[in-house]
Amino acid sequence: MSPVLSSLSDFLSYTARSWSESEAPRSILRSSQLPLIDEVTGGGFPLQATTEIFTNQTGYGEIKLLLPTLATFEHVTWILNPANNIEPYGPAFSDAGLDLNRQLFVVPPTADDAFWAAEQAALSGETQAVVVWLHGLQKTREHIVLPRLMMAAQSTGTTLFLLRPMNAICLPSAAPLRLQLTPAPMGKTSIRAIQRGTFFNTSRCVEVALADLDIKPNPIRASLTQQLSLDLFSLPTPAMAFGSHQA
Description:
The protein has helices at residues 3-23, 35-41, 62-70, 90-95, 111-124, 139-156, 219-229; strands at residues 29-30, 45-46, 50-55, 76-79, 86-88, 103-106, 129-133, 159-165, 177-183, 189-195, 202-208, 242-244. By secondary structure, it is of the alpha/beta class.
């Protein structure tokens, strides 16, 4: 490449990067309390905004990834996916410092009902965060459903965490942060963080052994929930916050 073209290329790259850094929408971030995750996301999860998490199936550690952050909210609404046949495991929530008195669990029968429940929770203004599994939505409705849900959350300052199937990552989205979780060698999980900018999206990757993440519970919240958590949502396997339900 000639010196002139090289200089022009460098100038254009610098200008685009400057625009992206100065004009990209800034969100207040809340630390994930997990250093590797904060590093790849640029500081944590955006508050009063939407984070999308994409997986091929449940069980890549997506819930464990969120628990330290969710423990900092006063009230969280969980819209579960009945197709996964999972239910909360109380002691794991307690270990992460979540007060079960401040968690609302909803099991909608269909994907449309999950969207409706999440929208109503966000519009209510009575919950600080909504975690919702959005699976099975028709692609023709994506461009209607997601903007409505995001606008509902934005109107009340609710933080959204959307858990979605991997094939939805190719669809356009206004979410400032999107996380793609895929299996990696040695039992690790590859996390690709895609951050939306005004002109360009940026992405960073990290491989993490989510099973080995050191979650330090909030001691105050843990003391409040310990007794209650032992009485609710008991399952045979105490390994995760969510486990397969045994009929």
